[in-house]
Amino acid sequence: MKSTNLIWHNGHLKPWAEATVHVSAHALHYGSSVFEGERVYATPRGPQFFRLADHTRRLFSSARVYGIDVGYSPAAIDEACHAVVRANDMSSAYVRPLVFRGCGGLGVLPAEDVVDVAILALPWGSYHGDARENGADVCVSSWNRAAPNTFPSWAKAGGNYLNSQLVALEARRGGYAEGIALGTNGLLSEGAGENLFLVLNGTLLTPPTGAGVLVGITRDSVITLASSLGIPFAERELPREALYYAEEIFMTGTAAEVTPVRSVDGVSVGAGGVGPITRTLQDAFFGLFDGRTEDRWGWLTPVIPAVVPDRESQEATIHDRTSRQKPPAVEASA
Fold first, then answer.
1. For residue 25, is pLDDT > 90?
2. Which residues constitute the domain of residue 273?
3. Count of C-beta atoms within a 10 Å radius of residue 202
4. Are residues 17 and 56 in the same domain?
5. What is the CATH number of the domain that holds 23?
6. Are 135 and 260 in contact (CB under 8 A)?
C-alpha cells in the first residue's frame, strides 16, 4: 500500500508515521470501530467526492448502532475529509474515515469510553485489477453471512469484516478473485466486500437489504442509474443456482466500483465476458466522472480549496465540538 504524507487524526493533520494508536485500544481487541470508504474522482471540473454526504450519514448511523459517540458533527467530518485530500494534493483518492474506541480498559464494555477519529486518503486504482474490463472469477464460499439479529449488517463496523476475511481468504486459496457468501437460509447474500447483481431474462436483480447485506451506496447508485436508463429491476431473494442461470453478474462497492463476474465456481457466466447490461451500467457510472453522464442527483462534491477562516467561523467550529474538546478540523500549520 502506498502511503500519503498526512493523516487527519483527532482534529489534526499529522505525518503518516505519527498517527499511532496504543496497543490497549478497545477496537484492536474487540473490533469496536465503524468506518467508511469514499472515492474522490479526477473530473473535468477537478477532484470531486462521490456521494460524500451519504457516506458520512452512514458513518454516523453505524456509530449509533454500536453506541459510539463520534465527537464531531457530520459537517466537521466532511470538512476533515476535504482537508486530508487537499493537504496531500490529490486529484483522485480513496478516503477512509475511521471511528474507533481507544484506550478505555480491556473489558468488553470499556470502563472509559474514549473515541478516536482518523481519516486517511490513499491512491487506489481498480480494486480487482483488470477484472473491471475482463471480468472476475469468483466462487461461492462455505462461510455464511451472520444471521439476522446477530451482527447488524447495515452497520459498516470493523468487527463485521472478520466474516468477510474468511470469505476472501477461502476464495484466494482456491485461486479466485473473490467469494460470494450465502445467508443462513442458503440464499444469496453478497461478496466479501461487495454487493451482488444478476441479470436473469433481461431483468436486473439483487438480494434484498434484509439478506445480511450492507446497504451499499454504490448499490443504490446502480439501482438509480438502471431506473434512469429504463432497465427492468427488482430486489428478490435468490437461490445459489441463480448464479449458474444468470446471463450476467457483477459486483458493486466503493472499492470494487462496478466489477463484472465472468465465472462462478468455474462455470462461465453468459458468454464469459462483460454483458450488455453490465457494460451499459458501467458506462453510466464512470460517465459521472468524465462528463458523459449528467449528475442529476447531486452526487458529486468538489474538493473545496483551502480558506483562511474568519474569527466568527473559527468560533463556530469551536462551539461545534463535544465535551471531549477535540480540536477542530484545520489544516496543518507546517
1. yes
2. 131-290
3. 11
4. yes
5. 3.30.470.10
6. yes
What's the distance, CA 292 to chain centroid?
24
Instruction: Catalogue the active-site residues.
Output: 156
Classify residue 330: in a domain, yes or no: no
Same domain (yes/no): 95, 137: no
Beta carbons of 249 and 131 less than 8 angstroms apart: no
CATH of the domain at 265: 3.20.10.10
Q: Which residues pair with 34 in a beta bridge?
A: 99, 157
Element (H, E) at 86: helix 74-87
Task: Assess contact for 141 and 179: CB atoms under 8 A.
Answer: yes
Per-state percent for the chain, helix, strand, coil, to nearest 5: 30, 25, 45
Report d(CA 277, CA 118) in Å as an integer.
Answer: 38
pLDDT given at position 315:
40
> Percent of the chain beyond pLDDT 90?
84
* Alpha-carbon dihedral sign for residues 309, 312, 313, 316: positive
The domain tally of the chain equals 2
Residue 327 resides in a domain: no
How many percent of the chain have pLDDT more than 70?
Answer: 91
Cβ(273)–Cβ(135) below 8 Å: yes
Cβ distance 279 to 134 under 8 Å?
no
Residues 274 and 178 in one domain: yes
> Chain centroid to CA 126: how far?
14
* Count of other CB atoms within 10 angstroms of residue 24: 12
Nearest of 236, 217, 231 to residue 281 by alpha carbon: 231
Residue range 215-242, pLDDT digits in tens: 999 999 999 999 999 999 999 999 999 9
Q: What are phi and psi of 208, to 5 degrees?
A: -70, 165
Distance in angstroms (rounded) separating the CA atoms of residues 193 and 216: 10
| pTM for the predicted model, two decimal places | 0.90
